[in-house]
Every structure is written in structure tokens, then in C-alpha cells.
């Protein structure tokens, strides 16, 4: 549990975690984008490392290969959702995030250097939060 000016909050708030990685609404600032973007990447690297440690053709290697492919599919969507929210933070529409499916990790670095729109825009009143309906 961490404490903020609004009182105690949990470190992992499931609805906010799901919003961050799977929703296309709202905005994220550069630091949240980079930190959240590292999680799918590190997950894939860990699974690939585990796969490389096991002898080929064994049940364990098949398990790690399957886990890696599942992580790739989930990571593709979560990276797309994160990138869409990052583009929203400076007023660009969701379809700009399609670039992330082609460029990938390079875009993670590039978007980390763009400043957020100050104040509200059409994608949300504040950064790092879902858009209000």
C-alpha cells in the first residue's frame, strides 16, 4: 500500500492495470508509457530466456515456446493500447498507434520524448487516467 494526498492506495489496482494495458481510452504521460512499455518487453525476454535454457524437443521447451507466443500476442495488443493512449496525450487519434505494429520498440523510445498536452484534450481531462464518458 502507498500513501498519496488522496489517502492510501493499493500498488496494483486491477481495473487501472487492465485499463493501462488493454483499453484504448484515456491518456498516458511519457514516463508511464516507458515504464508500462517495458513490462511486455521484459516478459517476452524472460520467456525467451527460459526457452533457450531447455533442451529442444522436450515438453518443457514446448511449454516455454507456447508461453512465449501467448506473450507475443498479448504484448502486441497491450503495446498498441499503450501507444494509442500515448498519442491521445498529445491530441492524436488512435489509428496513429497502428505505426507501433510496424516499428515496435523504436517507437517506444521516440514517443518517450514528446511532451504531453497541458491540461485537458478531447481524449481526457488528465493524463494517466481513462477518459471520462
Which characteristics define this entry?
133 residues; mainly alpha
Tell me the distance between the termini: 29 Å
Enumerate how many helices there are, as a single number. Answer: 5
Output the structural class.
mainly alpha
Kindly report the spatial arrangement of strands forming the biggest sheet. 1-2
Shape: elongated
- The number of distinct β-strands equals 2
Query: Largest sheet at a glance?
Result: 2 strands, antiparallel
Radius of gyration based on Cα positions: 17 Å
Mean pLDDT across all residues, rounded? Answer: 84
Uncertain runs are none
Q: Approximately how much helix is present in the residues? A: 55-70%
Order of helices and strands: EEHHHHH
Q: Give the amount of beta strand, in percent.
A: under 5%
Give structural notes.
It is elongated, with a radius of gyration of 17 Å. The mean pLDDT is 84. It contains five helices and two strands, in the order ββααααα. It has a two-stranded antiparallel sheet with strand order 1-2. With 133 residues, it is mostly helical. The chain has helices spanning 14-22, 30-53, 59-89, 99-103, 105-111, and strands at residues 2-4, 7-9. The longest helix has 31 residues, at 59-89. Helix 2 packs antiparallel against helix 3 (59-89).
Helices and strands in order, then pairings?
Elements: E1 2-4, E2 7-9, H1 14-22, H2 30-53, H3 59-89, H4 99-103, H5 105-111
Antiparallel strand pairs: 1-2
Helix pairs in contact: 2-3
Quick gist of this model?
By secondary structure, the protein is mostly helical. The protein contains 5 helices and 2 strands. It has helices spanning 14-22, 30-53, 59-89, 99-103, 105-111; strands at 2-4, 7-9.
Amino acid at each position: 500500500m502507498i500513501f498519496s494526498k488522496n489517502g492510501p492506495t493499493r500498488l496494483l489496482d486491477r481495473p487501472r492495470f487492465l485499463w493501462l494495458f488493454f483499453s484504448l481510452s484515456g491518456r498516458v504521460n511519457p514516463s508511464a508509457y516507458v515504464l508500462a512499455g517495458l513490462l511486455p518487453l521484459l516478459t517476452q525476454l524472460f520467456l525467451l530466456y527460459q526457452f533457450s535454457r531447455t533442451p529442444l524437443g522436450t515438453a518443457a521447451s514446448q511449454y516455454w515456446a507456447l508461453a512465449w507466443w501467448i506473450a507475443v500476442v498479448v504484448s502486441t495488443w497491450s503495446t498498441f493500447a499503450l501507444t494509442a493512449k500515448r498519442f491521445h496525450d498529445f491530441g492524436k487519434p488512435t489509428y496513429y498507434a497502428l505505426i507501433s505494429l510496424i516499428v515496435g520498440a523504436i517507437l517506444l523510445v521516440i514517443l518517450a520524448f514528446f511532451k504531453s498536452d497541458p491540461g485537458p484534450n478531447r481524449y481526457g481531462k488528465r493524463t494517466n487516467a481513462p477518459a471520462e464518458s
